[in-house]
Amino acid sequence: xxxxxxxxxxxxxxxxxxxxxxxxxxxxxxxxxxxxxxxxxxxxxxxxxxxxxxxxxxxxxxxxxxxxxxxxxxxxxxxxxxxxxxxxxxxxxxxxxxxxxxxxxxxxxxxxxxxxxxxxxxxxxxxxxxxxxxxxxxxxxxxxxxxxxxxxxxxxxxxxxxxxxxxxxxxxxxxxxxxxxxxxxxxxxxxxxxxxxxxxxxxxxxxxxxxxxxxxxxxxxxxxxxxxxxxxxxxxxxxxxxxxxxxxxxxxxxxxxxxxxxxxxxxxxxxxxxxxxxxxxxxxxxxxxxxxxxxxxxxxxxxxxxxxxxxxxxxxxxxxxxxxxxxxxxxxxxxxxxxxxxxxxxxxxxxxxxxxxxxxxxxxxxxxxxxx
Length: 372
Fold this sequence. Notes:
The chain is mostly beta strands.
């Protein structure tokens, strides 16, 4: 294992006795994954990982039924679906057969756990169970997922994905100290995922990456360099709560690259002398899940909707089987996955955090020269 590429937090580091689910369900659970951490620099100089904990039932199948966890105002409950009526090509979800449209259930419920680490991200300082963020509204009934944190104007803004039968949406949280977050509600509606605020206000406005999803996309002309499908878009806001998408296209999948299925935001865009630096994920079609890798782009300093450089031919970060080898008994994804979610300036290099194999939190130290 390289000293500059390592796992900092794994499922074994989570104390489920302190899980927010403990007060309302008696069924035994386990940590399917502790991964996809948002990243923030705290006022004391330490770093905060906002870790997604996917907590799953130890025995999801009960006779002829498959069970899933759902939040309600009265506590968490177990829902049951007939086993004969579902299919499970993806180990993270199951799909209902014969529904007319794709209807899914989750094999786990996610909540967020703040983990404070040293300023160089090499040691854990404290796991803040008392500040965990659990589902608290109907739009989060199946979980709170994939935090992204941006420091803008001296305060911290955190986006998360809320999952429910009504919608998959983006919810906003706000903090004045980087560790205590207040929920502000839904800011983007159905299936607009991977929303990430820029760390700064271009032209005095909040700006964010978005990634709307849909069931159908239109094809580009045959001679176009672009592939159709989910892509990264831009939006602006006067207050970080009300957002207007920009008209111009953002970052799209390009033919002849490893990104053949979709792409989406990864780290919060940060301002460098060369422009706004952002890392993003690209997915190659393979089996049900696909292969996830990390790429990067540089956006214009004055107009970030204009990409100056898109590095999508060779990945910046790929899944590293050596890192998860000690956790081989916990691996459940069939394809290599690394999902990058945060970046912090560390002087002559950047500290980059990712979810490795939807299982654990990975730290990679990357010299700044790599982006020049």
